[in-house]
Design goal:
The protein is an alpha+beta fold. The chain is 26% helix and 24% strand. Strands 1, 2, 3, 4, 5, 7, 8, 9 and 10 form a nine-stranded antiparallel sheet that branches. The chain has a two-stranded antiparallel ribbon with strand order 6-11. β4 (105-113) and β5 (119-120) form a beta hairpin. α1 crosses α4. The radius of gyration is 27 Å and the shape is globular. The relative contact order is 0.24.
């Protein structure tokens, strides 16, 4: 019997995809030649002094705070510069923390405040974090402000505007085959043999890709609580659910038994996940009035 004609091979390939699934983009890493993350270098500002009575209630005394440098070096958004996963439904805050005091310092927690005043804590597991982001995003998009949101850097200028291309199918894999019915039957029989093998292969690829994502996520993640010796530096990432227009990142730290807060102002990110405003219409030259 002659080899199946090209249209039949296309039908066979389509059947394999339909019966066995395909490699999931959810688990794919981004190409290694992506642009590096945009440097922000947003530093924490000293907390204002408060009274000792307020400090006993959990406040801060600025003059007794240990010397610590906290910097948000960059923010990696969905498919933005520095993104290492093709579809990362989270916001990655790359930070550095330097303990410049003479005593050990413990970073107990981190919270991110978004444009709605919600405070979010870092995620420790990528798939759970992605689920939380997708649930929140679907709810936000159906709200009154949903038409102002965009998945990705948005108006903050962290990257280029995402472009979505639609390809119309005209014929292609599902174009009418011109081969004889016997050849089609042979292709279908071959599909029944190859499909289980293909399915197992896809499962193995997805499993390996998933393991790579988890490994990279954990390699980059800063695990809290974190203890810094005098003069030590910690650098890594906090992964938050997608949070448009964040206002601040707060780190709760403790030294000598006293808690203190370090606040990084994120006003520069007020356009994150928000659409850029439409440019104003061109102003036509006013007609000169006659005498």
């Amino acid at each position: 019997m002659k080899n199946p004609t090209p249209p039949l091979l296309a039908v066979l390939g389509a059947a394999l995809l339909l019966t066995s699934g395909c490699v999931s983009s959810k688990y794919k890493l981004a190409p290694t030649n992506t642009h590096p993350p945009v440097a922000l270098n947003l530093t924490a500002t000293p907390a204002p002094p408060v009274s000792p009575s307020s400090a006993r209630g959990g406040g801060q005394i600025a003059e007794t705070q240990p010397s610590v440098d906290t910097t948000v070096q960059s923010v990696i958004a969905y498919q933005g510069p520095g993104s290492w996963k093709r579809e990362s439904f989270w916001d990655e805050y790359v930070v550095s923390i330097v303990n410049r005091s003479a005593t050990p310092l413990v970073i107990e927690s981190a919270t991110l405040t978004d444009f709605q005043g919600n405070t979010n804590v870092p995620g420790a597991e990528p798939w759970k974090l992605e689920g939380e982001s997708k649930t929140w995003w679907q709810k936000a998009k159906s709200s009154q402000t949903g038409n102002l949101l965009v998945l990705g850097a948005g108006a903050v200028g962290l990257g280029t505007t995402l472009a979505v291309a639609a390809v119309a199918a005209s014929g292609g894999l599902f174009a009418p085959a011109t081969a004889a019915s016997s050849a089609l039957a042979g292709a279908a029989a071959a599909t029944l043999v190859v499909a289980p093998i293909y399915a197992v292969t896809v499962m193995v690829i997805n499993s390996n890709n998933k393991a790579k994502v988890v490994a990279e996520f954990q390699r980059r993640r800063l695990d809290l609580p974190l203890t810094l010796a005098p003069g030590a530096t910690a650098q890594g990432s906090f992964f938050f659910r997608i949070s448009p227009a964040p206002s601040r990142l707060a780190l709760r730290r403790r030294a000598g038994g006293e808690p203190f807060d370090t606040i990084v102002d994120l006003t520069a990110l007020r356009g994150l996940h928000f659409k850029a405003p439409a440019p104003p219409p061109p102003v036509s030259a006013a007609k000169s009035s006659g005498p």
